[in-house]
Amino acid sequence: MKLVIHNFDGNPPSGAPEPLEVLLLKQLSATDGSEYWLAELSQSIIYKTDGKEQEVSHIIVGAGISGTSFNKSFQNSRVNVAYVTDQAALTSEELNFAHADYVAIGIGSIQ
Prior knowledge:
The protein has a 6-stranded antiparallel β-barrel with strand order 1-2-3-4-5-6. The radius of gyration is 13 Å and the shape is globular. The N and C termini lie close together (about 5 Å). Helices cover about 0% and strands about 55% of the residues. It has about 110 residues and is mostly beta strands.
């Protein structure tokens, strides 16, 4: 499934285009009951943090409203976005925020 995040309240996260298009790859297991997915960016971006630059090719997205899921009816809903900063996140089945930096809230839709 493709998720398009089309609104960051006019302030997209560092390096991200708006809209931001991602391909949902796999759902991650999480202990807080929320739905999170590992997603691949349509093209890598450069993330600048703590005086360093890092190429980011994947993000973690979370449905921002309790009880919502990323399915075809997910339209114009809140999405939490975290950049994957540790490649260990790509092979893990469980969510680990130590492998990502939370960067933004946007509004997204499944296409």
